Amino acid sequence: MLLSSTLLENAVAEFAKLPGIGKKTALRMVLHLLKQDVNEVQHFAEVIARMRVEIRFCKRCFNVSDREVCDICANNMRKQDIICVVETIRDVIAIESTQQFNGTYHVLGGVISPLDGIGPDQLTVEALIDRIHKEKTTEVIFALNPTIQGDTTIYYIQKKLADTPVNITTIARGIAFGGELEYADEMTLGRSLQNRMPVGSYR
Predict the structure, then answer these.
(1) How far apart are CA 99 and CA 82, in angstroms?
(2) Would you state the CATH architecture of domain 76-198?
(3) Is 45 exposed, middle or buried (0-12, 13-18, 19+ CB in 10 A)?
(4) Which pLDDT tens digit goes with each residue over 3-34?
(5) What is the per-residue pLDDT across 25-72, written as a single tens digit (0 to 9) for each?
(6) For residue 82, which of 154, 169, 9 has the smallest C-alpha distance?
(7) pTM attached to this predicted model
């Protein structure tokens, strides 16, 4: 994209790096910022920079947080003995939007995928196992994307918990195999949580 300003081109190139943003959309965003007051644009840039520098990850569940422990883990009104295991932070947001779950979470940071070079050591699996052993966990709900990699991850963790007296369930297959949680509608995702089943029953 040839523009009359190198500064404009550089800004468009940076916005175009965002997922789902093409060059034309990036250009519209940059031109919109050009119309705004300088102080507003400065504030916008400062908020983004501060978010990146100051944001933390909960030391208990690895969800994003402003403090050492996230608001969900710190909420005594939630069922602290129930852990919903998810792949990414986006999945926490998707499940929370259903307002059907009142337990806690554990963000793995991905799923086991040998072909992509991702093993258990690259995820927060050991932290999850340690947490279940130390806390009085009564149920672990697997809410991973229904894929081969997701099922492999569930199987691996289930084996690691074989000697642990905890109820292990997975969300119902209302989510299509091969689909992704963040794209599921709230009703389907909510019902999948409510109708969760013991791990192994769908194999």
Answers:
(1) 15
(2) 3-Layer(aba) Sandwich (3.40)
(3) exposed
(4) 788 999 999 999 999 999 999 999 999 999 99
(5) 999 999 999 999 999 999 999 999 999 999 999 999 999 999 999 999
(6) 169
(7) 0.77
